[in-house]
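ENCODED BACKBONE
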Amino acid sequence: MVTLKDIARECNVSFSTVSKALKGSPEISFETTDFIQKKAREMGYHPNIAARSLRTNRTYDIGVIFEDKTGAGFQHQYFATIISGIQKVAFSKGYEMTFVSGDSTKNYDYYAHALARNYDGVAILSCDYTSSGVKQLVQSEIPTVSLDYFYDMDHSAVMSDYSAGIDELMEYVISQGHKKIAMIHGEKTWVTEQRVEAFKNICKKHGIETPSEYFAEGLYHDPVTSSAATEVLISLPEPPTCIFYPDDYAALGGIRELNSHGIVPGKDISIVGYDGIKLTSMMIPPLTTYEQNGEIIGRTMAEALLDKIENPENFVPKKEMVTGRLIHGGTVVKLC
């Protein structure tokens, strides 16, 4: 079994430095911490969870709620990078990560599940945040952090800055001369409300009309519903010159539908996505989209959750916004 002394000898540092680095202590520089943690993984080091649990009265296990409605699962790059960010921070502080299976639409009792598994805390990534099963967990004594849903000032949340993302995308599209802009949005959630509101506000700012027929509902990460919505939009008497998709996977369904009608994105029509997954960057032309920083989002979630777990007396809940960046791609036609 690899011990802290073995790692210290291999890294040529002191025992206490290794101990602090593996806990993610701010006393140790980022470079040294990263070096020691990588070396520990290479050597196959595993902390003695049982002994530490007896000492601290923790299980060193955090639950992760991720409900997948479309079947994309962890293949979806955005969620995969968030989970990777959570995992890196959790591992650096000696925590394991366990996925929680349930269905919030059926009011699954996540609180009872978390109690039974004795999680130190729970990160909530994807679910019906308003269900009684999820609310009971959030309102309990178990530390939680939520993604893209803010309960109140007593609970931490990490948000992708959708207003900034929509603003940047829309300003770019409008700068290219587009005024007939349609939006396919995801199912009715808090995130969807934020995006639609930001979309309408930018249009209003530029004096652009937003007729109701230019809004269509689909599902996030679902090419099938976005394909059907695309067909409806291009069949309108006055079809849009640009279609805004809820995410890059959804945009793939739209592209397939457009191609079936002989319409080429970036030439005959403009389209934009959201998320910035690698797959759409390899298209010809690459998709114009907004890249969300999943890695930073995941790290920020994990840090907030572990801070609540380890420093309950001094912990101050926060609502943290994470911005991304515009990827111009080649799917927006310049009209002026």
Summary: The first strand starts at residue 61 and ends at 66. Residues 294-310 form the longest helix (17 residues). The chain has three domains: 1-46, 52-159+294-322, 162-292.
